[in-house]
Amino acid sequence: MSSHWDKIEYAEELLTSFLLNCVSTSKMEWIEIERIRGIVEVTFEKSSIMFLDTVLRELIEDVFQKIGAPLIIKLTENLEQPSKSGELLLQVSNSLEQLVEFRKSCIELLLLIGSVRSKKDTALLENSFETWFSCKLTSIVTPQFEEFLRTFAKASFQQVDWSCPESDAEKLSMEGFFSVCTYLESLGLSVLVLQVLYKVILNELQSLLKIHEGNFTIRLLPSLSNWLDSNVINWLRWILGMRTEASVSGSQLSNVSPLPCHQSPLLLERMSPTDKAHVMKDEEAKTSENWYLEKEKLYTQCYLRIDHLIAQELARLRISEMFDIVVDYPDSLPTLEDLKDCLQKTDQKRELSKAFKLQLNKRLLHAGATTSDILATYVHAIHSLRIVDPDGNILSDISKPVRKYLQNRSDTIRCIIYGLTNETEDETFQELISASQNMAEEDEEAIEAKWMPLPADAPYDEYVSGMDDAFGILLSIYGSKESFLNEYRTALADRILKSLDFQLDKEMRNVELLKLRFGESSLHSCDIMLRDLRESRRLLTSAKEQISSWKDESFEIVVCSKIVWPKLTDESFVPPVEIRCALDSFQKHFEEMKKPRKLLWDLSCGAMKLSLTTEKGQTISVRVSPLQGCVLILFGRHGQWNLQQLCEELSVSADFLKRKILPLVNQGLLQELNGEIYEFVESYEGNFEKEELIIEEETMAEEERSEQTGSSNIWIYERYIYGILESFQALPLERIHKLLKVFVINPRYDKTEYELNGLLTNLVQQQKLKCIDGLFMVNK
Amino acid sequence: MVVVKLEKAKVTCHWTWNTKDETCGICQMPFDGCCPDCKIPGDDCPIVWGPCEHSFHLHCILKWLNSRQHCPLCRREWHFN
Question: Taking CB atoms and an 8 Å limit, are B39 and A562 in contact across chains?
Fold first, then answer.
């Protein structure tokens, strides 16, 4: 028994010295080999493979402690206190080379021992060694080591031409770095190398992208792909040892290519000379081919990964700038194309929609942005996202908050219509035209044929199917086309009645276009409004021809078909005699021509342009509402008016008139003296000889609007009041109030007695009722 | 004294039929509008009066007169005034 242990101990000693010898001289004495084989065969013939493994492990561990460990320690120390970088590279390279040698020798030894036993045992021993060795190596991988690699990788990347470095020192350092990489690869640390390489590429990429931050007018992706194909790939090939023949100068490649196991000299030794030559040639070709394939695979992997990296980084940058890109549309088209291509490769759509939503919230959807800005940006976003994501998921996702926000803005529809009819913003209109043409072309069957299932990532709520038409999307903000058309009608009426140079042709074109989209019948009332205008112009021409007294060229009169027009405000007044004459003669003309129709004036609508010449010869041109115009005309008669006199002259209430005069006072045309006396200001300060002073009546405030909607209820009360007064003949105010309270249930009568008084007075003014001694009765 | 010259004025008015009633007794549409068969109110869809001073859209009463010859509201004999 003891002799067996002695044998083992002897064998261990022998193997250790053999290994030590191998590592230090990196050569094997072939005579030794035969002797060791013999001893191993004898000693370990009967022992189990586990036992052999343990023995060998201990043995290698011993040798490693003597040779490998100091190398690693030295390497780490060198890295921690770097001297000159050139020396450091050399030192690291040397240490690594020795480690590679050590590994090689160990494997040789294992093969040698394995050759005595079965093939299976050899593989087992080898595996066990590899695991152990890679554990030992992990201590190399310190942050300093990575940093070291990165520095050189970066330096080599920035080298323009790797095949011929500029100076010898550079050449040396690059060759050194290359061999470091190759050693690391041989040590099984290629993952580490790749990691560092990716980091360097990422850094380079990011600095490249930084240059193009905020520049959306050129496409980046093609130039980046180009960069990948030329710079990055060549560099990678160089580092991964795939240098093409032309660029390889030295014989380094064959020197450092890892020695495959089956090429071990030992195995070859045992073959017959002829066999040997044959196998050598065969094996060599096979190995280099295998090795090449392996590399090719790795290289393809790297290529794909970097390609993905580029797409990802570019997309990330553009996503962070999405808002600016959208604002810049259509100048940012190249960038949008880029982003589209990137998103096809990476999985960042969700990221985009999330980030864009945040940006919108932060930069657009707040009180500081005007509705028209929001709408314009939204339209741009629609266009942009249609390019980036044709499926429309992102669009429908970001639409939700925008639409919700726009719904809370009261002037959204007005802005849409303004954008539609504004001359400068023809783009939207073009959109409308093209969209409506599309709609006309596609009948339902065609749409059905085009049906596609929703994409998998579609949010199943609120998926807007008609997302391919910006105008339609804008319209759908408000849900119904009715509200849009109503608003359009109001806007059109406003323009017809208030603008002094109304462009009939343009508006007719607009209406025709809208008809294409909404159908003939929806725009019927707009049609009639424009027809009214044409008819009025005809009437006016005939009036001028037929009425001899009609000399005044300045009037344009619009006769409305009341039923299709939006409710015209009925704040009537009696104009000064010079205007009244003209109006009366037109009225007479109309009533003759169109018997038995009669004409009623709605003087509150419309506009007047006046030129005021002061005593000093200063001329002021103003545009005002008819009532204000009449007031100014009155001031042409007397320089000073008492409010009461003015009211009598124009037959309006004092409060009402005061409110209307206020803008004139504010603009400095009139001034108010004590006791409600107004005076024309002779020395007007502004210079409006050239420009026109436009005095708007106070725009209809919100409360007034709600009052107007309230007036629809008043119409119902009116019916009840007539009914009550017809059955009771005459009643005082409080009786009517009480009766209304009892009878009017839907909608509930909620007026105060005071408000009812206003309503009744109004009806008396309109001569529908009369009031005698506090009793109201129907005027028959 | 300031001299005021009216350069341009846009004045609005609306027409209405000179009738007592507001709606046509036959079609129940307002006279300011038109009968159900017409599209454009005004000259194209006039109003007519009978001797009883009841008024209807021309098109409405013509249809009515196809079957009988009296006013649909008061049954007096109809002819156009």
Answer: no
Distance CA A515, CA A239 (A): 68
pLDDT in tens, A478-520: 666 777 788 788 888 888 888 888 888 888 887 887 787 778 8
- Position A249 scores a pLDDT of 37
Planar angle of CA A294, A299, A300, nearest 5 degrees = 100
User: pLDDT in tens for each of the 81 residues of chain B?
Assistant: 788 888 888 888 888 888 888 889 899 888 888 888 888 888 888 899 888 888 999 999 999 999 888 899 898 888 887
pLDDT at B41: 87
Would you say residue B8 lies in a domain?
no
Contact list, A632 vs chain B (CB under 8 Å): 4
Number of H helices, E strands in chain A: 33, 10
Share of chain A above pLDDT 90, in %: 2
Does the pLDDT at position A313 exceed 60? yes
Task: Tell me the nearest-neighbour CA distance from B60 into chain A, angstroms.
Answer: 18
> Chain A 447-506, CB below 8 Å of chain B: which residues?
497-500
Gap from A638 CA to chain B (nearest CA, Å): 7
B contacts of A611 (beta carbons < 8 Å) = 4-5, 7
Beta carbons of B76 and B50 less than 8 angstroms apart: yes
Per residue in A135-193, pLDDT (tens digit) is 877 777 777 777 777 877 777 777 655 555 556 666 666 777 777 777 887 777 777 78
Shortest Cα distance from B43 to chain A (angstroms)?
A: 8
The verdict on B20 touching A (C-beta cutoff 8 Å) is: no
Q: Which chain B residue lies closest to A618 (C-alpha atoms)?
A: B2
Predicted TM-score (pTM) of the model is 0.60
Tokens representing B23? 């709606």
Closest-CA residue of chain A to B3: A613
A777 and A769 Cβ atoms separated by less than 8 Å? yes
Q: Is residue B76 part of a domain?
A: yes
Query: What separation in angstroms does the CA of A691 have from each of A11, A360, A392, A543, A600?
Result: 114, 40, 49, 32, 34
Considering only residues 508 to 527 of chain A, which have any Cβ-Cβ distance to chain B shorter than 8 Å? 524
- Using CB atoms and an 8 Å cut-off, which of residues 664-683 of chain A contact chain B? 680, 682
Q: List, in order, residues 6 or more apart from B24 with CB less than 8 Å away.
A: B30, B31, B35, B47, B55, B56, B57, B60
Q: Is A598 on the interface with B (CB under 8 A)?
A: yes
Query: Residues A519-540: pLDDT tens digits?
Result: 888 888 888 999 999 999 888 8
In terms of CATH architecture, what is A702-778? Orthogonal Bundle (1.10)
For A703-748, the pLDDT digits (tens) are 344 444 445 566 778 888 888 888 888 888 888 888 888 888 777 7
Question: Is the CB of B42 less than 8 angstroms away from the CB of A600?
Answer: no
Tokens of A771: 């009031």
Residue with the two structure tokens 């160990």? A106
Q: Do A608-694 and A702-778 come out as alike in CATH topology?
A: no
Cis omega (within 30 of 0) for bond into A596: yes
Any bridge partners for residue B4, and if so which?
A612
Query: How far apart are the CA of B74 and the nearest CA of chain A, in angstroms?
Result: 21
**Does residue B51 fall inside a structural domain?**
yes
CB contact under 8 A, A633 and B4: yes
Q: In whole angstroms, give the CA distance from residue A307 to residue A738.
A: 83
Torsion-angle region of A241 (φ positive above 0: left; ψ -120 to 50: alpha; else: beta): left
Does B28 lie at the interface with A, CB-CB under 8 angstroms? no
Q: Is there a contact between B6 and A554 (Cβ–Cβ < 8 Å)?
A: yes
For residue A341, which phi and psi values (nearest 5 degrees)? -65, -40
CATH 3.30.230.130 fits A608-694, yes or no: yes
CATH number, domain of B51, equals: 3.30.40.10
